[in-house]
Each structure stands twice: as structure tokens, then as C-alpha cells.
């Protein structure tokens, strides 16, 4: 079986058993995350910036103010490393050395493209909003022409990517299993709530169900 | 008041009101996070890798297998951008445009130094373990000479750094406050548990309190 997303750059070097290259696995991790880290090079030095994102098919989108330093740099067509990391648990082994974490991460490489087409830009903005809370786009005021112009949207094709996943209990050195040390996994999850309604609400609008029953 | 950690590179450019440069604020965010993102440049292109870390005083430490690509690259004394991001909530505005997130993030710039001194290396390894679960170091088997040799520890001084923080309700356009759209904040927290004891436990060791009552 070939892995078109697997390249020399995306091949997982450390713990190669943890590497996965199928699109579905990568898309699932991207869809569950809320924040990505965008790495790029300015004057030979690395910059990493956390930001929101969305996915439509085989592209991820990031956005920001047209005036932002990150977007101005990325618009010049430079290389980007885009990562999303989901932390699933603390792996507590019998030795300090074998402590680890359960996680799912994605790394994408590529050159970001400026989305100039108005329709694609609006679709991407919808994807950002829907990525955060499904159904939210239909509930809120859509971007007006001024807001659209002030927003820069960049697309990064998912063509060179890998996922790295660790699951399961600690793996200790054989001779350590006899030690009287508790070992196991402490799962971590992201919990939402309680909802805080904006004190500036002027009318009595109920909290929508997609917010009230939010789960990630 | 001067901000020694604030430099041209760490000055927050977008939404400068959110920028903070005092050491205490930065240290608090670093101590709460579990995973950092390390950005560096290889052959002119950016690489961002999620990894564990620890802090002692005004240094952060990362580690990995001596054979790892990341650590080999960093050992050559190249520039690093180190970030930690804590997501505190979804900020749901009346317009799509004003949606945001509440977060606390730290960005550090610098050159990582290889920790050669055996005592500092052991102290850093203790910091990694204690960073994940306080009190764990005393409960587990310490690194032996082989494990110490196989582990590479890098130090990054906290000398050029900034924090960026957003809190509070959405800030909508003045004319949108009259819209019949629910707006507010959905707080997000990291929850731990239920604890999963390793099925390979050979003796009946109780779950330690620092794991059972874990809070981040």
C-alpha cells in the first residue's frame, strides 16, 4: 500500500511504529483540534504562532488580519510547517525514563496560498466558525464586505503530512515490572462549560443547544 | 517599568494590549502547560515538533533520544522558537468576524544549549517528571547511567520571551449588540481521569494521591 502523504520530510523518524499516513486519520485529528501551530522562517530564524484553523476536504485554512506579520510573511509563498497536537493522557511508568504521553499529532508541510476568490474565502470563513461550534455560522451575522477585505485567508493543501499517535499503558523495562511502583495512564480530556452568557446581551435569547451540549 | 524579556522579536504585534512581558506571568503559563512546540530551521525550512518540557528557574528544558533528528539539529546551536499554548475558552460573538478564543500563550526565542553536566542533566530529568506529576520523581526508579547517556537534554534560557493573553466576553461591533443572537464564552478546561492502572501491575500498590487527585 502506498502512502502519498508520506515523504522523506513527513516520515516519522523517532518511534516509527507511531507514524500513520492515511488521510482519514490525519483529517480526524485536524477536525478534533481547536488550535494549530504555524511555523515559518523569517530572516533565517524560526517563528511559531498558535492560531485557529478550519479544514475543507484536502485543505486546511488559517486566517488573520490582512495587516498581521504572520500573514504578510506567509503571503510571500514561503514554506510552512503546520502542526496540531491532541494530548490524551499521561503515561506513568515504573521508571522516570519510561514516562511518556498518549497523544495524537499531525504535521503538515507546504506552501500556503493566498485565497483571493471571494466564494472560497467566504466558504473558508464558514469553515472556521463551524470548526469551533457546529451550526454557529447560521446563527450569527455573516461577514460584511469590509470584514472580508480586512481578513486574509491562507490555504495549505494536505499533500505532505503525517500523524503520530501513542496509545496504551506504559512500556517498562522488563526487570522493572517487579518494582512496587504504581504505574498506569491518567487520561486527559477537554471539558466545556459552564456557559457564560455575555453580560451585554440585550434580548432574552436562549443558549443554543450546540453550545449548551458542546462536546469536543 | 522596563521589560527585559521584551525585544523587537517578542513584542506582540497583533492586539498589543494582549502582550505581557513579566517573568511571573510567563513562568505560570509554562508551569501549567504539558506540551510545548519547538520550531527550528533545517535547510532553510521550518520544522515544528510537539514535545514535553520542564522549567527550572529561568530556563526551560526539553529532552529526547540522543539519536533524534530534532535534538541533533538543535545541538548545532541553531535558533529555536519555543511556544506553549493554553486554550481557556471559545469566545462566541454575535458576528462570525468577532469570534475569538480565550487563551494564554508564551513564545520564547533563543539558542538551545546541550546540557553536559551530569548534575544539571539529572536535575532537568527530575524537572520533566515533576512537571507532569508533582511528587512522581520520588516514587519511581531514577535514571541509570545507560538511560542518562541515551537521553539528550537541552536548555533554553528565558531571556527573550512574551506572553499573550485574551480573557473575557466577546467584543462585538457596536451595532451588533441589538441582534437577537446568543453570545458568550464557553470555558474549556483539561480534566484528568478516570485513572487506568497498568494491567501488568504485579503487586497491589495503591494509586498515589498525586495521581488520584490530579488537577492541572
From TrEMBL, chains A, B:
InterPro entries: Pyridox_Oxase-rel, Split_barrel_FMN-bd. Coiled coil: none annotated. Gene3D superfamilies: Electron Transport, Fmn-binding Protein, Chain A (2.30.110.10). The lineage of its organism: Bacteria, Bacillati, Cyanobacteriota, Cyanophyceae, Leptolyngbyales. This is Pyridoxamine 5'-phosphate oxidase family protein.
